[in-house]
């Protein structure tokens, strides 16, 4: 060993360190630099692990939200299709004159149609499908589609006067806009 060699003088330790480069066993700047580099690498690895955990958690949350949305809105396409059936049933009931509603031959038919209408409304409600309120309310472009304007002095311009076709929501999303007639100032 030389005077500059800082290897341990204990023969057992010296034997263990035989073959280890001296820059790893020197107490000088090289060892301190190596230690600092290792500490920096360790911190970088810890940060990478934290970022990976956070990303994994974000992906899991997004997937949970997508699964929940898929469950909640899975019936959207079917619900849109069945709305026309509900509209037709509603129109059929509206066209039955009052005198036929009281006729003994038609009474059971009308009662059956009304029961079917109530059942459709019950099924809609159980799946989060609700009718949009329209008549007498201000036009809401997010829920109503103005089909025509009617001059009126009785209400404010932009107020829904008539519902031409019912609109529906599925939970918090628009399923179908209500088609309405709105008031305008008379000429």
UniProtKB/TrEMBL annotation:
The organism sits in which domain of life? Bacteria
Subcellular location as annotated:
Cytoplasm
Q: Write down any Gene Ontology CC term.
A: cytoplasm
Write one Gene Ontology MF term.
unfolded protein binding
Keywords of this entry: Chaperone, Cytoplasm, Stress response
Q: Extract the ranges annotated as region (Disordered).
A: 1-26
Q: Which Pfam families match?
A: GrpE
Output compositional bias ranges, type Basic and acidic residues: 1-10
Query: Which biological process annotations from GO are given for this protein?
Result: protein folding
Similarity annotation: Belongs to the GrpE family.
> Could you describe the subunit structure of this protein?
Homodimer.
Reported function:
Participates actively in the response to hyperosmotic and heat shock by preventing the aggregation of stress-denatured proteins, in association with DnaK and GrpE. It is the nucleotide exchange factor for DnaK and may function as a thermosensor. Unfolded proteins bind initially to DnaJ; upon interaction with the DnaJ-bound protein, DnaK hydrolyzes its bound ATP, resulting in the formation of a stable complex. GrpE releases ADP from DnaK; ATP binding to DnaK triggers the release of the substrate protein, thus completing the reaction cycle.
User: Can you name this protein?
Assistant: Protein GrpE
Q: Which organism is it from?
A: Novosphingobium fuchskuhlense
């Amino acid at each position: 060993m030389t005077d500059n060699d800082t290897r341990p003088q204990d023969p057992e330790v010296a034997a263990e360190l035989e073959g280890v480069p001296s820059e790893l066993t020197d107490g000088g700047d090289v060892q301190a630099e190596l230690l600092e580099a290792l500490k920096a690498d360790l911190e970088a690895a810890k940060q990478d692990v934290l970022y990976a955990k956070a990303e994994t958690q974000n992906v899991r949350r997004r997937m949970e939200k997508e699964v929940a949305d898929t469950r909640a809105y899975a019936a959207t396409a079917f619900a849109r299709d069945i709305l026309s059936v509900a509209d037709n049933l509603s129109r059929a009931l509206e066209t039955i004159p009052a005198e036929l509603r009281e006729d003994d031959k038609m009474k059971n038919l009308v009662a059956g149609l009304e029961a079917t209408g109530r059942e459709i409304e019950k099924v809609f409600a159980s799946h989060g499908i609700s009718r949009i309120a329209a008549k007498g309310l201000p036009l809401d472009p997010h829920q109503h589609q103005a089909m025509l304007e009617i001059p009126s002095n009785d209400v404010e311009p932009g107020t829904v006067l008539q519902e031409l076709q019912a609109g529906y929501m599925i939970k918090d999303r628009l399923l179908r806009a209500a088609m309405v007639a709105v008031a305008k100032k008379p000429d």
